[in-house]
Amino acid sequence: MKHIGIICHTKPASGPDRVIYNRVEDRLVQAVERTGMLPVLIPITSLQDLTDYFIRLDGLIFAGTTNIAPFYYGEEPTDKTGELDLVSDQFEMTILKQAIGQLPILGIERGFQLINLALGGTLSQINSRIIHFGSGTTYHSLNIRKGTLLHGLYGARLIVESNHSYELGDLAKDLKWTAKAPDGCIEAFEHTELPIMGVQFPPHRMSDNYSDLLLTAFLDTL
Amino acid sequence: MKPMIGITASFDDTYIINDQNYANSLEKAGAIPVILPPLHDLSRVDAVLARLDGLILSGGQDISPFRYDQDPHPNCASYSDLRDAYEIALYNKARQLELPILAICRGMQLVNVIHGGTLVQDIVSQRPDSLEHAKPDVTATAHRITIESGSVMEQIMGGSAVVNSLHHQAIDQPGEGLKVTARAGDDMIEALEADNLIAVQFHPERLFSQPAFLRFFEELVRRAK
Question: Which one, out of A12, A96, A174, B207, has a CA that is 20 to 30 A from the CA of B200?
């Protein structure tokens, strides 16, 4: 049975004792279990050498929704950046950079953007007429590139949930885009050599079927 | 290679959650921590434990009173059959594998129930003369405990200590095979022991910056190596 490490994010302190929680979306955990993998959650620590995890795990998932601090690609936050989680940024970047080439990696939403940054790409704030985020649940379509893993799973076109105020700027040179929104926004990629893939949309929040297809494909890379 | 120690998790409506003090305590004690979300398929506990060197049963919600053959008291709330069932399966398998276990608060109560013991479902209404055991600020000290001589508890904390406290339920009848190793001034059971098992009613993870409380995690890590 394959052990999948899902990286936690923190919930800001609340209550009289100011407790901070490590947390992962329950629907993502359930989606991983449903696909036949064992989800274990990796809490945020100040550990600098994360390789002891890699010996005991078969793959990693990076997810989450908080924007990554723009400092990581040489920009400043704007009024649309929202709340940042600098502790998560630092821990995730550390573990991700050490994991590349060691374990298969799946990036979802924030995790998708993080992989691009870790491999040398950039992000930019979305300035588009199609809707990528809003106060409620928003949707748009995707055009999926022929000959890619994603095309094999979903076909040429997919309607996805969308909730992101940043998009990929420069795509890292080792990544190949596999889906784009109608405005040209890159919504999915695969690594050209390593078992690393990412999606901007949240399959686990869309439907069990979409989610199971993607996670089963990830399981097949382990 | 550092030992990898699993921590059981709580949850809210959307997230699997775990107080970061558990992971931080383990990190400081020299382990790498992982959080274990409750799984629906209980047969997977074998695989979960196969890669772990030790286990922390963490604090959290009440245990279903049906697990110890009682009906719910009005103040017994929010128990989860999913979490209870998963943690019981995890504990039983971990015992079989002789993995070292540290059980905290709910974790100690769960261990007691698995061993056939019972719980006081609501201290304030059922034991009205008790000390205050549910202090909202769990970083504050709450009451003294007296520790059994010759116990592992004594090696960790000495003959007596002042501890924090955040629980509205408590051990009533101790379970079979569990030794009571600490009590509060109102006679409430504050620690239980067995081979490879240390169980405490208070929260050492919230005070791990103090050596006496960090020692619980250091002892777990020492046994996990």
Answer: A12
- Asked if B132 contacts B154 with a C-beta cutoff of 8 angstroms, the reply is no
pTM for the full model? 0.96
Assign domain B4-224 to its CATH superfamily. Class I glutamine amidotransferase (GATase) domain (3.40.50.880)
CB A59 within 8 A of CB A103: yes
Residues of chain A positioned with their CB less than 8 A from the CB of B41: 33
How many Å apart are CA A129 and CA B173, to the nearest integer? 66
Measure the CA–CA gap between A27 and A14, rounded to whole angstroms. Answer: 23
- Closest residue by Cα to residue B120 from B167, B176, B177: B167
Per-residue pLDDT tens for B9-39? 999 999 999 999 999 999 999 999 999 999 9
Is A222 in CB contact (< 8 Å) with chain B?
Answer: no
Q: Give me the domains of chain A, ranges plus CATH numbers.
A: 3-220 (3.40.50.880)
For chains A and B, CB pairs below 8 A equal: 105
- The answer to whether residue B133 is catalytic is no
A190, β-bridge pairs: A176, A197
Provide the ipTM. Answer: 0.96
How many Å lie between the alpha carbon of B54 and the closest alpha carbon of chain A? 14
**Cβ B119 vs Cβ B168: under 8 Å:** no
Q: What is the pLDDT of residues B169-213, one digit of tens each?
A: 999 999 999 999 999 999 999 999 999 999 999 999 999 999 999
Give B195: exposed, middle or buried? Use CB within 10 Å, 0-12, 13-18, 19+: exposed
- Chain B touched by A44 (CB under 8 Å): yes
SS3 B52: coil
The answer to whether A26 contacts B206, with C-beta atoms less than 8 Å apart, is: no
Question: Is B203 an active-site residue?
Answer: yes
Distance CA B127, CA B96 (A): 35
